[in-house]
User: Fold Pyridoxine 5'-phosphate synthase from mine drainage metagenome.
Amino acid sequence: MGKLRLGVNIDHVATIRNARGGAHPDPVRAAALAAAAGADGITAHLREDRRHITDDDIDRLMDTIALPLNLEMAATPEMVEIALRHKPHAACIVPERREERTTEGGLDAAGQLEHLRPMVGALVEAGIRVSLFIEADPRQLDAARALGAPVVELHTGAYCDHAGPRRDKELARIQAAAAQAAALGLECHAGHGLAFETVAPIAAIAAIAELNIGHFLIGEAIFTGLDASIRRMRQLMDQARAGQ
Ligand code: PXP
Assistant:
């Protein structure tokens, strides 16, 4: 079984910084710390309204952080232009507006094939590894394949938000989607809402190559520090992967 990569999403360090409008806490400092704590990549979402990560943060992350950057972005001409200018390692296309989403919240790739096709094409052409943040839904996986995106990121929000039989059902859906991704030749990632309590069953899915985790790690860092929260997550992922 391949190693499971951890992408640390630093958006909410910027959320706290922006609450006061200054420079502290700096998400780029958090990215450097995440690298030292064992992260395999840094994820940042440059939202259209710039509510957390800013253009300057992306400039500085690209200039100073050695880890691969996964730029989360809406499928808009402005964001495609920014991605093509920076050429991050990866770009994950996420929905920002309600009409771009499926009922659960992933990108409705199947419903906007013609809108997405030229943007995915331009990013792939530039050598950026494109992923689509989708629900664990066979139609959305087929759409990703049809669009030529090499990677899908499965939305784990519903799995994390529910307990009991509904969580089991969501986990089964994610397991089936990861198997479908492998059969389609797509690299499979997962993320959204993952925490210490929920990560193990997802990390144990062999077809998943990367988890992107942010809000919980930054929140937990208030109590234990960012280094400790990332190291604990890494340990739980590695143990689940090793079948312990
Ligand atoms: N993956 C994607 C595509 C996301 O948009 C987000 C949230 O920005 C995450 C993973 C991380 O989610 P969380 O912050 O809840 O861990």
